[in-house]
Amino acid sequence: MSNKLQELTERLYNEGLSKGKEEGEQLLARAHDEADRILADARAEAEKILALAQQQAADLREKTASDLRMGSAQCLQATKKDIENLLVGAVSAAPVEKSLGDPDFLKQIITTVAGRFSASESADLALILPASLQKELEPWLAGELKKALGSEVKAEFSKKVGGGFSIGPKDGSWFVSLTDDTFKALIAEYLRPVTRKLLFG
User: Fold this and answer.
1) Is 193 part of any domain?
2) Do residues 101 and 131 touch, judged by C-beta distance below 8 A?
3) Euclidean distance between CA atoms 85 and 82, whole angstroms
4) Which of 45, 133, 178, 180 has the least CB density, counted as fewest CB within 10 Å?
5) Residue 36 and residue 32: Cα distance in Å, rounded?
6) How far apart are CA 158 and CA 178, in angstroms?
7) The domain containing residue 102 runs over which residues?
8) Residue 195 located in a structural domain
9) Which CATH number goes with the domain that contains 179?
10) What is the pTM of this model?
11) pLDDT digits (tens, 9 = 90+) for 27-84
12) CA 84/CA 141 separation, integer angstroms
């Protein structure tokens, strides 16, 4: 009887041990599968993050390169413009200022321009002249020009005019500007294309 009890005990123990071992192996296999799945998910997520980071880095690199290209093109254009302005200014400024600051030259031009107005228009003329030439031009305006036109011309001497003059009706409805600034602008318009071609091809 004790043998049978011992056999039964051993059989129950072995069956329990076998069943526990089998369940343990199943749990271990499930744990391995879960670990493999978690690892695969983590790898996929890491690859996704890496791909996104690489794409963002490539986009940033392209945007930076584009900004640098645009910035350097604008800088080059501005530098060319500055060089062009300096050269055109240097070429045109001195001769224009010299001519339009010469009282005799101005007298000739004013007489010619004023003489083109009709008798009724010349009676109503106004001039703006450089303040620096007031001493030289004031007596001439009251004498020779008044005599040539047959009427007095209203003249204003302005510090804003460096050289040349503006002429037109007293009512200010229109005027002809022959100041050093307008001459420089006019000459610069003709010089710029030639200068640009010579400098930059």
Assistant:
1) yes
2) no
3) 5
4) 45
5) 6
6) 14
7) 96-200
8) yes
9) 3.30.2320.30
10) 0.45
11) 778 888 888 888 888 888 888 988 888 899 888 888 888 887 887 778 767 766 666 6
12) 39
What's the Cα-to-Cα distance from 156 to each of 38, 94, 132, 133, 166, rounded to whole Å? 92, 25, 12, 11, 10
Place of tokens 């930059």: 200
Whether 124 is covered by a domain: the verdict is yes
Q: What's the number of domains the chain is made of?
A: 1
Closest by alpha carbon to 181, among 89, 82, 112? 89
For residues 130 and 156, is the Cβ–Cβ distance under 8 A?
A: no
Q: Which two structure tokens, joined as six digits, stand for 129?
A: 């002249």
49: its two tokens = 């993050």
> Which tokens is 182 given?
């307008």
- CB-CB contact of 140 with 111 (8 Å): no
Task: Say which amino acid occupies 189.
Answer: E
Q: d(Cα 10, Cα 148) in Å, to the nearest integer?
A: 147
Residue type, 127: L
